[in-house]
C-alpha cells in the first residue's frame, strides 16, 4: 500500500535538524494543503503539538507525520525530498495528483480540486 506521503531519509534528516534548532524535538510534522498560490493550492509543512480525530498518522524515519483526513486524497502518493546544491538546499514535493504546477514549486492544482488561485 502506498503511503499518503513519503518522506525521504534526506528530508527527514533536515526536518529533524530544523526541529532541534527550533527546540521542537517533541513536535509532530504536519503536512497539509491550503487554498492559494498561483495554481490554486499550496503545500504547507510545520510543527504541531496535538493530534486530532481529523488526522491520519504516519511514522517514517523516526518522524510522526500528521495529515488532515480531508487533505489525504489530494496528497495521496506525494513524495517529499530534500536536495542540496551549490546554491543551497530546499525541499522538493512530487505529487502524482497535481495536473498543474506553478514555477515556485509550492503551488498546484488537481483534477478534482482547483483551490483558489492568487496572484504570485
Layout of strands and helices, then pairs:
Elements: E1 5-7, H1 9-21, E2 28-35, E3 41-48, E4 55-60, E5 63-68, H2 72-75, E6 78-85, E7 88-94, E8 98-101, E9 107-110
Keywords:
mainly beta, 14% helix, 120 residues, 3-stranded mixed beta sheet, 6-stranded mixed beta sheet
Structure description:
The protein has helices at 9-21, 72-75; strands spanning 5-7, 28-35, 41-48, 55-60, 63-68, 78-85, 88-94, 98-101, 107-110. It starts with a strand and ends in a 10-residue tail after the last strand. It has 2 helices and 9 strands; from the N terminus they run E-H-E-E-E-E-H-E-E-E-E. The strands form 2 sheets. Strands 4-5-2-3-9-8 form a 6-stranded mixed β-sheet. Strands 1-6-7 form a 3-stranded mixed β-sheet. The protein has 120 residues and is mainly beta. 22% of the residues are buried.
In short:
14% of the residues lie in helices and 45% in strands. The chain contains two helices and nine strands.
Helix content range: 10-25%
Largest sheet: 6 strands, mixed
End-to-end Cα distance: 36 Å
Count of extended strands: 9
* β-sheet strand percentage: over 45%
Give me the oligomer status: single chain
Order of strands across the main sheet = 4-5-2-3-9-8
- Secondary structural class: mainly beta
Overall pLDDT confidence: 85
Overall form:
globular
**Radius of gyration based on Cα positions:** 14 Å
